[in-house]
Amino acid sequence: MNLEAFILGTGGMMPLPNRFLTSVLLRREGELFLFDGGEGTQVSLRKLNLRWKKISAIFISHTHADHVTGLPGILMLSSQVDRDDPLTIIGPPKIAEYIESSRRVLDMYINYDIVVKEITEPGIVYEGEHFHIRAFPLRHTKPCVGYVFEEDPRPGAFHPEKAEALKVPRGPLWSKLQNGEPVVSSDGAMVYPEQVMGEKRKGRKFSYVTDTLAFPEIASEVANSDLFVCEGMFERDLLESAKEKKHMTAEQAAQIAVQAGGIKKLALIHYSPRYTEHNLKQLLKEAQAIFPDTVLSRDRAVFPIEYED
């Protein structure tokens, strides 16, 4: 089952000609999940030829303009195609008011159901088949949350030689064992899945953190992420400015990745508009000095998220 992260925008504060505002789309087979919707999100969706009608849920970190100004366009865009399933929008307090006021003032034509859920406490906010998405609090100038997408553990590897040794004939009984069901062998003995299966294998994990001070609890939330998308808004020399604005530096994002443990890749995002494409290399250099497996997110970059085995 494929899992991919599409970077739709990487900028903070204001859009630039080649840098839309922050937004990331996660695709798990045919199901799509959007994290934030800054200005330009709709354009990147079209450029990547992604099927926006398949967006099941939108997860908003907070209601600052550079993270939500693309939402009205997404809602109206979805009305241009037949959509039977409701669209779920999840975010901290004020997101419901923002959606409702946008619909009213813009007199939107919406031909599908929109379900808005405001986060009042951390924990699981969305569940699907063999995965969940949970929110955890961040520290910004207004209520803000980070998100973690995590798959359930997968069954261990099936060992056919063990099944044969226990006299379980090849065929449907093997499938039942792999699906977690006990079976009866050809000599009448009960055979349980744990007798022929290896240890459970880790599912995939994606974490999204932006617009926050750096603080230790983030590390425990994002630990063991296959892809950790995290803001790296400023360089080290602007640490005090980052603290004042309740943002973090690229170096701090890398420190969180190290503290977390098990992070396979850190992708920086939400760059200050002060940095040109050339200047972004300084952010990358500072982060890689601490966490070598760091990359710069780019608008419309794609990150496949693979099973570790």
From TrEMBL:
EC numbers: 3.1.26.11
Residues annotated as binding Zn(2+) 1: H62, H64, H140, D211
Residues in Metallo-beta-lactamase domain copies: 20-195
Residue numbers annotated as active site: D66 (proton acceptor)
Co-factor: note: Binds 2 Zn(2+) ions.
Record flagged with keyword Metal-binding: yes
Keywords: Endonuclease, Hydrolase, Metal-binding, Nuclease, tRNA processing, Zinc
Cofactor(s) listed: Zn(2+)
Keyword Membrane tagged: no
GO molecular function: 3'-tRNA processing endoribonuclease activity; zinc ion binding
Positions contributing to Zn(2+) 2 binding: D66, H67, D211, H270
Catalytic activity from the UniProt record: Endonucleolytic cleavage of RNA, removing extra 3' nucleotides from tRNA precursor, generating 3' termini of tRNAs. A 3'-hydroxy group is left at the tRNA terminus and a 5'-phosphoryl group is left at the trailer molecule
The protein's enzyme class: hydrolase
Alphabetized PANTHER family for the sequence: ZINC PHOSPHODIESTERASE ELAC PROTEIN 1
Subunit structure: Homodimer.
Function: Zinc phosphodiesterase, which displays some tRNA 3'-processing endonuclease activity. Probably involved in tRNA maturation, by removing a 3'-trailer from precursor tRNA.
Similarity remark: Belongs to the RNase Z family.
HAMAP family (UniProt xref): RNase_Z_BN (MF_01818)
Stated name of the protein: Ribonuclease Z
Organism: Gracilinema caldarium (strain ATCC 51460 / DSM 7334 / H1)
Gene that encodes it: rnz
